[in-house]
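Before the break, one more example. Copy the sequence into your notebook; we will annotate it together after we see the structure.
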Amino acid sequence: MLPSAVVSLWVALVILPVVPLVIWSAAFSWRWPDLLPTAWSGRAWRYVFSPTTQVRAGLIGSSTVALLTMMLALAIGTPAGIAVGRMAFRGKRAIELLLLAPFIVPGLIVTMGIQIVFIHLRLADTMQGVVFAHLMPALPYVIISVAGVATNVGVQVEEQARSLGATSWQTFIHITLPLLRPGLAVGGLFAFLVSWSQYTSTLIIGGGKVQTLPLLVYAFTRSGDNPIAAALALLFVAPAVVALALASRTLRVRQSVVGGRL
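Here is what the structure looks like once it is written out:
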């Protein structure tokens, strides 16, 4: 009974803040103290789906940057996560603490330092620079997720594959990666969401030349156009909902497989 109540409360806390956004996105006039809008309109959604606005460019920009960040984070974070999860080496504890740095150090300070370096490297005001800036807070999620799975997955199957003649690359592709799939899926989804939600680093490193959805949401929030801001905000949170559902499904599948083996 208690777990069901906790889950229900958690779902309510996630959904309730979205309800006003849904109402605002379809409202034309909504003044205090009215509980609901006195007039309705589809203007906000017509703007969002109009090909003449910046929304399409923002969606393409956010999707491109987030996908590139996710792929780079997986490419770099997978071997790093395997090393952290399986190997014992000098300085391992320091590296594990260093992975927590993006969660501790204020993002604005880090971004300002990165900008100075990127100006010298000619990466400022470019999409490549924005991707590299997003990689810093996204990479720890992949490393930690992969390390958590790698720690609990033995190497016996990999050793058997190599003893039967498989090369190291074949073992990695056909044995290691499938075993690490839950960690890769969760880490990749988090890396995508971290990049998708970045505002400060995109604004500073991109210099306004790299257009993403968070920049549009903030601009319309500042302008006071609440219906369009609400519609853009709903568009902005949609990938998070999808990623949460995918991560939950991945973890349930992993638990069922482990339970079946036990």
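The two ends are 26 Å apart (CA to CA). Residues 63-257 form a domain with the MetI-like fold fold (CATH 1.10.3720.10). Try to locate both features in your own notes.
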